[in-house]
Design a protein that fits this description.
This protein is of the alpha/beta class and 204 residues long. The protein contains ten helices and six strands, in the order H-H-H-E-H-E-H-E-H-H-E-H-E-H-E-H. It has a single domain, classed as Rossmann fold, CATH 3.40.50.10230. It has helices at residues 6-27, 32-45, 50-53, 60-69, 79-84, 99-108, 112-122, 135-145, 164-172, 188-203, and strands at residues 54-56, 73-76, 92-93, 127-131, 151-156, 178-181.
Length: 204
Amino acid sequence: MGASTKEGHEIAAKSRKIVRSLIGDKIKHLEPGEMEIVERIVHSTADPEYAELTHISADFVKESSKAIRGGMDILTDINMVKVGINRYEGEVKCYINHPLTYEISKEREITRAAAAIEVALNEGFEGIVAIGNSPTALLKVIELADNIPSFKSVIGVPVGFVGAAESKNALQNTSIPNLVTEGPKGGTPVAVAVVNALINLQKE
């Protein structure tokens, strides 16, 4: 799980053993790839509740894996998510600080996170979307998805008490391959854990 030294590998192995002892019974119905993802979320957050809060559509791992093998882009809502993703041979992009994002946000009075999704599509984005913080970014993805088949899968785990749960529910009601966390829980560590787990699955 990101370890690079002998000590790090030993700690990671011990942590994984603890995680499996805590949530093994709760995720035994999942496919192996799905189990790997949920284990990594729990490991990254030290919160076993994610074993029950994480919902994965039937085609999420398959479509995400295909995109990663194809070297497609990964789009994040904020830079914190971007910098947490490692060992990916494709490009990880974030347009939250793009000049056009500021312009669209100001002119249309929408959040920068939502505007950044539009900018990404203008720049030719195609691949996986990882939303760890902004419900408005996730809602923008949903709004645009019907007409623009650029989103191969979406990780929708925005955190917070305003709009987060609603945006995740909306994502689950689409045909987009998706992973969400129920309710207000989520955030950068969860989004990063999911992406890195997907990357690791391909390396294995």
